[in-house]
Amino acid sequence: MIEQALQTEPGRLSQSSLWERQQDFFLREGAGIWTRNLVPRYITTNPFIARAYAEVVAAYLEDCGEAEGSREAPAYIVELGAGSGEFAFHFLRHFTRLHSESPGGSGFRYVMTDISQSTIGYWRTHKQLRPFVEAGILDFAEFNACRDRELRLLVSGHILDPAVSGGPQVFIANYVFDSLPQDAFEVRDGKLYECLPEADADALLPVAGDRARHNEPIVLTYHERQCSPNFYGRDDWDRILCSYGASVRDGAFLFPVGAMQCVETLGELSRGQFMLLVADKGFHNVEAFAGQRRPSLIRHGGCFSLDVNFHALGEQARHQGARVLHRSHDASHLKILAFVYGRDLAGCTEKAFERHVAGFGPDDFYNMMSDATRNARNMSLEAITSLLRLSHFDPVILVNCYERLVEILPAAHESTQRYFYEAMRAVEEHWFHLDPEQNPDFYLGTLAGAMGMDQEAVAYYRRAQAVCDSAGAEHNLGLSYLMLGDLKTAQRCFARAYELDEHLKEANLLSEKLEAWPHAGAVSGPGVEIGETRVSQLENGLVVLEHLDHPDIVLKPLLPCHAEAFYQQATPEILGLTRLPAFQSVEEVRQWIRALTSDARNYSFAITHRVHGVAGVISLLRVGDKAGRFFCWVSGSFMGRGYATASTCRLLRFALDQLSLDELFTSVLPHNERSARLLLRFGFHRVQMPGEELHYYRNGIEHLSDESATRHMLRLLGGNAKNIVVKHMRLEEA
Ligand SMILES: C[S@@+](CC[C@H](N)C(=O)[O-])C[C@H]1O[C@@H](n2cnc3c(N)ncnc32)[C@H](O)[C@@H]1O
Question: Taking the mean position of all CA atoms in its chain, how far away is CA 210?
Answer without folding.
Answer: 22
